[in-house]
Write a structure and sequence with these properties.
mainly alpha, 4 helices, 2 strands
Length: about 130
């Protein structure tokens, strides 16, 4: 170090150029107050816009509170998955029955469907030829 710090407890006044540099508290407080006022005005404008938009979208007012409110389980939470229901079993049974039987697709044109096993056998036979 080029110089030793002073251990003096006496306070020295700052140099004149530095003494003029001070915080202008009136400017800081004025900026804070102006910011709060701008925020308040913007909040009011947005509130009014939202209120008018709500009245435009719901002219008769909000919908009534559903009777299900407050219950432990509502809507799809209490429903069983599709693959467990009887509808899935019936659908699967119908599809298996269709794949394993003969039937008409279009009677006028004479188009029929055949069991899938028979159709696969015919395809294999055609490929061998």
């Amino acid at each position: 170090m080029s110089h030793e710090p002073s251990h003096s407890t006496a306070h020295m006044a700052p140099p004149p150029a530095q003494a003029e540099e001070g915080i202008r508290w009136s400017g800081v407080i004025g900026t804070g107050v102006a910011s709060i006022l701008i925020f308040a005005v913007a909040t009011f404008v947005v509130y009014r816009y939202q209120d008018q938009r709500e009245k435009f979208l719901q002219p008769v007012g909000p919908l009534p509170i559903p009777a299900q409110m407050g219950q432990a389980e509502i809507g799809i939470v209490d429903q069983v998955p599709f693959d467990i229901t009887r509808a899935a079993q019936a659908y699967r049974k119908d599809e298996i029955e269709r794949l394993s039987s003969w039937g008409w697709i279009d009677r006028k044109q004479g188009t029929v469907h055949m069991p899938i096993d028979r159709a696969m056998d015919l395809v294999v036979q055609e490929q061998k030829k």
